């Protein structure tokens, strides 16, 4: 009894992103090209130096860890050096810790190499990256490097040229849904399909965010529906934003502005409002040339907001521009 209650407690405590982190490369969802390349590496055992790059929450860290586990199995502890942005990775660490690890003698199965994992490598200073160049070459017969980063351009060119680049992209709605269903079933989460849709909408291709939002909604409300999801995620409700866009398209400028004012007064940041507007427009059923025009104007407004001018006036100005685009489209 005691053990069951403590286990349910600990289950409750584990974030679902960790609980459902795939342990094997095959279990990683999406990015089929990247994953199949990694699977080949896991099978053959000869790992090249690699850089995984892509947006957050798409499975880079997960892939590297799974790959290292598959390559080294029981030797993982001695054979892998794992450093991420929370570790000091200045030039001294490259000179001492990484070099020492590369020189260390470890008995591994034939054809296997020690692995240095540098997660979030885009936060390494370029000095530290420079110091890595020669180390990567000198010890290449015994040690291989796996780097993960969000923007590959922050990795200096010489390192890029020593590595195979594997790109990850945002996951599709379908892929996220598939994974959510697995978790929903395992955790017995009560839901309605619209609730999962809302989670997918707010996650925008980021699996980590999708799982976190699912867990947050579940622990906050015990029921996953649209309302609860948007309350938890604190994003403007897409239906509300959709109404604004529809009013613009129907020529009801005042109503559109009123809807916008309501959102603004609720305290949503202009950035949240504009990104939701963009996503609504992208999926809105309207004439293509008009949609392109709308997206262009939204892009310009986004730029101004990013420059710091996030006033209600800017957002209203956007609605005015959209209304004018509609007028010109109708006139022509
Ligand atoms: N492709 C995927 N398949 C299954 N689960 C995934 C996938 N991508 C992410 N996840 C889930 O999201 C969590 C975070 O993923 P991961 O740490 O691999 O992201 P990341 O790509 O390294 O992101 P970051 O750039 O922020 O470090 C994992 O624990 C896992 O539960
Ligand atoms: Mg990561």
Annotated CATH architecture of the largest domain: 3-Layer(aba) Sandwich
Any low-confidence stretches, pLDDT <50, length ≥5? 1-10
Number of helices: 17
Question: Can you tell me the CATH class of the largest domain?
Answer: Alpha Beta
CATH superfamily of the largest domain: P-loop containing nucleotide triphosphate hydrolases
CATH topology of the largest domain: Rossmann fold
User: How are strands sequenced across the largest beta sheet?
Assistant: 2-3-4-1-5
Briefly characterize the structure.
With 332 residues, this protein is of the alpha/beta class.
Task: Describe the SSE topology.
Layout: H1 2-13, H2 16-19, H3 32-44, E1 50-53, H4 60-72, H5 76-79, E2 80-83, H6 91-103, E3 114-118, H7 126-138, E4 143-149, H8 157-162, E5 164-167, H9 173-187, H10 193-203, H11 207-221, H12 226-233, H13 238-249, H14 253-265, H15 270-283, H16 288-306, H17 312-331
Parallel strand pairs: 1-4, 1-5, 2-3, 3-4
Helix pairs in contact: 3-4, 6-7, 9-10, 9-11, 10-11, 10-12, 11-12, 13-14, 13-15, 14-17, 15-16, 16-17
The chain binds adenosine-5'-triphosphate and magnesium ion.
